[in-house]
Amino acid sequence: MVQGYVVKGMTCAHCVQAVSSELKGLPGVEDVQVDLPSGKVMVTSEQPLDRAAVAAAVDEAGYELVGGEPQ
């Protein structure tokens, strides 16, 4: 299952790494793809992710989840 989100505040490769690392730590997450210019983050997981858990992981990385819904 792939879910798309928008993360605010990412400006460099380090930002992408920080967000990817936190999201990959969530249970069931298999892959994370980040498009830096748009802030879009595509998360592939075994099952739907809880939006609050995704927001908490993004917050832990130092950024803000501002949009996106399961696709």
TrEMBL record:
It comes from the Bacteria. InterPro entries: Heavy-metal-associated_CS, HMA_dom, HMA_dom_sf. SUPFAM superfamilies: HMA, heavy metal-associated domain. The keyword Metal-binding applies. The keyword Cytoplasm does not apply. Transmembrane segments: none annotated. Residues 1-66 form the HMA domain. Pfam families: HMA. Keywords: Metal-binding. This is Cation transporter. It comes from Streptomyces lavendulocolor. The lineage of its organism: Bacteria, Bacillati, Actinomycetota, Actinomycetes, Kitasatosporales.
